[in-house]
Write a structure and sequence with these properties.
The chain is of the alpha+beta class. The protein folds into 3 domains: 176 residues, no CATH class; 188 residues, Alpha-Beta Complex (Sulfite Oxidase, Chain A, domain 2), CATH 3.90.420.10; 106 residues, Immunoglobulin-like (Sandwich). 36% of the residues lie in helices and 21% in strands. It has 11 helices and 19 strands. The strands form 4 sheets. A 5-stranded mixed β-sheet has the order 2-1-10-5-6. Helix 1 packs across helix 4 and helix 4 runs antiparallel to helix 5. The longest helix is centred in the first third of the chain and has 35 residues. It binds the ligand Nc1nc2c(c(=O)[nH]1)N[C@H]1C(S)=C(S)[C@@H](COP(=O)(O)O)O[C@H]1N2 and molybdenum atom. Molybdenum atom binds next to loops.
Length: 497
């Protein structure tokens, strides 16, 4: 009997917790005000560095799913616990209606405390209160008579069913809303960037495969790496960049001041230090922005280490030399559009030739330091602030059977500011090598090139690809894992047969 009641208590708490989280989602969507976000933040911050690193290397993006699932479950547990306390309180006082009211008030407090958004905290508070009001009965102290057990059971099931229905309609309703208010749908395209994209289109190799990106990656195909599952929401009005720390003169730049500066459209590639050798975290966009050097010089950096810590609105930070930063670019546009939320809206920095992690998104502060300090990933064992390794990729969609029986191999090669001079392909496991055709070199200083090689297959081939950078240095043959300084070695894969 007691077991049965305890099970019902747990069920009702889970239903109230789930309804609360769904209610929050209904009013906030997948945004920083969603109650799951602060919980996710804590989970990510509490996870030890080696585990984060291992997750990136082994489960990759599944790692994100994992901590988000944990965060959702934890949030449900927290609101469930609030509902349980609310019902306990009602028991003590001997007033059943108090259970719903106390749950609502507790859920409101919890949500407001987690997110700092009292108005939006109504989202989780109301459904949690409603579920408890519908499903409530005395906690684990029923008189045990069969009628009251039956009606309690019915109430609990009613509350659970109501909560589930609410979850389904919240998620569905939110989805419908989301497609309507794509913040970038109406944004004007930049004519200068459009013309650069066309230039890159005509510099691209003609390929049989439609799936392989050309020289420009489409925005929705551009990889993403974030420390948090939630993109900060920063409007152009709110945004500013402040130079702090060891400067001759602190300075804050507003968005309107920034875009008044000399505008350039640069093709720049990004590659994540955490990706496997033949991984997919290498992409290129045409970025619209302005060089950072004049701004940096105007604040007269004076710290002894000549190094800077860059901060993003998501709590991310990374440190590297001022002279590297001086060659950087502050971007507010991507492929002719306003910079999308997932790529750092409204402003990110792009650092030529260095690993992706130096390219801080949602950039808000550049702190000139007196002594070196570790950045977010360096605290977790990575050494990813240096120059990228040379790599030639051969992705699945780069392998195409041509109608005449030959096989087309195609991909991208990247060596940061060193540029790519040559890509060689072997179809016999590295015994013999042939030069691949390369796309025209671009004037941009930090961009990949495409390569293409067609051959007559004869059974199964062990294909190996290697690039030579602009200094004449061959991509290193020695294999290494991504951690800590980036994957190395030559991409090989079995083709044909
Ligand atoms: N603020 C902030 N900037 C960031 C990151 C982040 O998590 N937060 N990730 C970094 C990493 S590891 C990489 S590889 C690139 C990825 O940029 P993208 O998501 O636009 O492809 O952003 C870098 N800048
Ligand atoms: Mo990265």
């Amino acid at each position: 009997m007691i077991d049965d009641i305890e099970r019902r208590d747990a069920l009702l708490a889970a239903a109230a917790g789930t309804a609360a989280v769904a209610g929050s989602y209904l009013v906030t969507g997948w945004s920083p005000s969603f109650v799951v976000r602060p919980v996710d933040r804590v989970i990510v911050d509490l996870t030890p560095g080696p585990i984060v690193t291992a997750a990136i290397e082994t489960v990759g993006d599944a790692g994100h799913l994992l901590h988000v699932a944990m965060a959702i479950a934890t949030a449900i547990g927290l609101f469930g616990a609030v509902s349980f306390v609310g019902r306990r309180l009602a028991d003590r006082v001997g007033s059943r209606p108090l259970a719903g009211v106390a749950t609502g008030a507790g859920a409101w407090l919890l949500a407001a405390g987690l997110t700092g958004e009292p108005a939006l905290a109504i989202g989780p508070a109301l459904p949690a209160a409603a579920v408890v009001a519908i499903g409530d009965g005395p906690i684990a102290s029923a008189d045990g008579s069969s009628t009251s057990v039956d009606s309690a059971r019915r109430r609990t099931l009613g509350a659970v069913a109501g909560a589930l229905g609410f979850v389904v309609s919240s998620v569905g309703g939110r989805r419908a809303l989301a497609t309507e208010d794509d913040p970038l749908a109406g944004a004007p395209r930049s004519a200068g960037a459009e013309s650069r994209i066309r230039d890159l289109g005509s510099a691209s190799l003609e390929l049989e495969s439609d799936d392989l990106h050309g020289l420009v990656s489409p925005i929705d195909g551009f990889y993403n790496v974030d420390i948090s599952e939630f993109d900060p929401e920063v409007t152009t009005e709110e945004w500013s960049l402040t130079f702090t720390g060891e400067t001759g003169a602190e300075r804050t730049v507003a968005f309107d001041d920034l875009i008044d500066r000399p505008v350039e459209h640069r093709a720049i590639s990004l590659r994540c230090v955490g990706e496997p050798l033949n991984g997919r975290k290498l992409d290129t966009a045409v970025w619209t922005g302005t060089p950072i050097r004049p701004l940096l010089e105007s604040v007269d950096p004076s710290g002894d280490c000549d190094c800077a810590m860059l901060h993003g609105a998501d709590g991310y930070y990374v440190q590297f030399p001022v002279e590297v930063l001086a060659d950087g670019f502050l971007a507010w546009g991507m492929n002719g559009r306003e910079l999308p939320p997932s790529h750092g809206h409204p402003v990110r920095v792009l650092i030529p030739g260095h690993w992706g992690e130096t390219n801080v998104k949602w950039l808000t502060e550049i702190e000139l330091l007196e002594t070196e300090e570790e950045g977010y990933w360096e605290e977790r064992g990575w050494e990813g602030t240096g120059e990228v390794e040379t790599v030639a990729k051969l992705w699945e969609e780069g392998i195409t059977d041509l109608p005449d029986g030959r096989i087309e191999l195609a991909g991208h090669a990247y060596a940061g500011t060193r540029g790519i001079d040559r890509v060689e392909v072997s179809t016999d496991g590295g015994e013999s090598w042939t030069d691949a055709t390369l796309s025209e070199p671009l004037a941009d200083e930090d961009v990949w090139r495409q390569w293409r090689h067609v051959f007559e297959p004869d059974g199964t081939h062990e294909v190996v690809v290697r690039a030579t950078d602009g200094t004449g240095t061959l991509q290193t043959h020695e294999r290494s894992d991504p951690s800590p300084t980036g994957a190395s070695g030559w991409v090989r894969r079995t083709v044909g047969g």
